Amino acid sequence: MAPHDHPDLSIDQRHALLTAATRLSTEFAGVFGVETIDRFLTSSYDQFAGRARIPHYLPLLAERFARQRLHALAKVEGKSLDGRPVVVFLCVHNAGRSQMALGFLQHHAGEAAVGWSGGSQPGDAIELGAVAAMAERGIDITSEYPKPWTDEVVRAADVVITMGCGDACPIFPGKRYEEWELDDPAELDLTGVRTVRDDIERRVLRLLDSLGVAAAGK
Description:
The chain is α/β, with parallel strands linked by helices. It contains seven helices and four strands.
């Protein structure tokens, strides 16, 4: 089923998804066919349809998530090898710890590394305490959103960082895994979130050093 043929879509959503499918088809021309792109866009839409707070943004979320998953699949299948290390941060709700870690990785690594994140039980929105604590460091994470992880995203990673997701975290042989034991920001006041934030930054900087990525922004 093409994404814009989904039975529960409004006219505006159909148009937005059709436009998204066209953009993705152009972006991944020669890499993936229309059927693969439509399948990923439809399944990405379904991931958010039952819990998105603002339905108007569903096509945009679906397009962004589908694009990430297609980039991951391209790496897994050897169709995209640019030499940059890929790090995936996994926690439970993808609303606090993993989002702060992703923010620091993108801030310090820039274009020298690729960062993704996901949760075993994605929340509805990024935690306000995490947003505020990161804003104090000049890093805006409000453009991100809680999302699940998928097999292709984890398989594409060079390093998988887990944060409290336990047995729910996916395990693929041969991957480099690290468990970061960190308090959940959702259970802390802003002072406590700052402590977790600073710990995460130190860990991200050590990780980048281990990957041979020179950290900027320090």
